[in-house]
Amino acid sequence: MWHWKRRVCSGSRLRRQSLLPRRLRRTLARIMLSLFLLALAATAAAQNLQNTSTARAPTPRREQFRVIYEWNAIDFQWASPEEREAYLNTSRYIPRNVLISGINFYGENLFLTLPRMLEGVPATLATIPVRQVDTAPKLSPFPSWSANTLGDCAALQFVQNVEIDRNGIMWILDNGRIGTLTQKPDTKCPPSIVMIDLKTGKNEMERIPLPKETVNASTSYLNDLVVDNRDGDYAYITDNSAVDPGIIVFRRSDKKSWKIRDSKSMLSVSEAAVFRINGTTINLPVNIDGIALGPQFLTEEGYVDRTVYFTPLSSFHMYAVNASILRNESLSSTGDGAIRPYIKDLGTKPSQTDGMKMDSTGTLFFGLIGNSTIAEWNTTTDFRVGQRTIARDPNYIQWVDRFTFDDSGNIYVVINRLYNFIKNQVSLDEVNYRILKSHTGTKSYIFSPDVTPVAPSPHGAATAPAVCASLLLLAFAHLFA
Q: What domains, with CATH codes, occur in the chain?
């Protein structure tokens, strides 16, 4: 209506427009229309790039898992047969008490953790070759026999898990306390993070004891960790203490740490505390346990963040929280529930989960203990409907513990029948520990692509085409006015 009135009242404008030949006006109109459509396409493309910056390719069909290593009992590369016999005779080596828990990869080796829950575990961190030369290889203590000396607080005491970051630094969780399944655990050595720079080949250990206000030496249980190589290098560590569970945040740059707590998401629940595996029933009310770290993404404000996924062992729920929330040290002093508004309950799983691992594309691999299953989930989909079974076998998949990736696109998983170990029912006549392998074509989350922060506005790339399209639309309207 406004243009109609303008044309009625302004004869001079009508006279100016009439000077343009009709064919030229039509040609200009077609050009303007083409530019407008191009601008709309550019806007849509920019918006699509923004919305799919963390999107992943469709999940490929997985190669079937196969057994590459298996043991009835764990043995070691001894200096001599006499030394092995001496360890056996003094109960410093009790084969049935040596359990494989964690696994990681670097170079030509798989690193295995052997937590000292019971006596008779001569080394708590060891290696085997990635390339299979024997179905039941003997383990080589790492970095050395002396570095695993029991009772020496400068040596490794109780290693539950390790992670190796993109810079070749091994992060070792050493609980310090040994004999956690005995009547009198030994708390002589403090809980610590131990660093080894694997690139140098010297394997020198840097030990960082964790402060008492963060970790209680008598009750804490440092279970698993993920490493975030941003802003000074952070580790997010699950402490499934029966007294004070939570996520410990450790910043390597200044060696500072704090604990974030939330009873609603980090405590075990009674309905998930009973495990039934192949006719064996065990009650394990264990708190926050598994943890994984998603790829980098841009927040609405244009900052880079990551998602931390976690679950109690005795729970059917999977939870998520942004790493930026965990990094907020002030939330550690405000008590239980301070981060509850920031935690998302993603939904339930068919069974309980111990170990889990994220790959570089944002696909989470995790075990479903009661179902004898290995599952995966593309984290760009809804967890409630996006879970997918990739392996199920009640004979070979009995308690999925930990995962790792090599640099050739393979995933490895430790199966350790933990329920038998805890109930003291380990039989040396049966296979108790297995390592399975499958090809995924991806690497560890450690090698997820870096994302560049957007400045000054995170939406700038999409806004410019939108403004251009609006201006062209206005010009197009005036041309036909």
A: 66-447 (2.120.10.30)
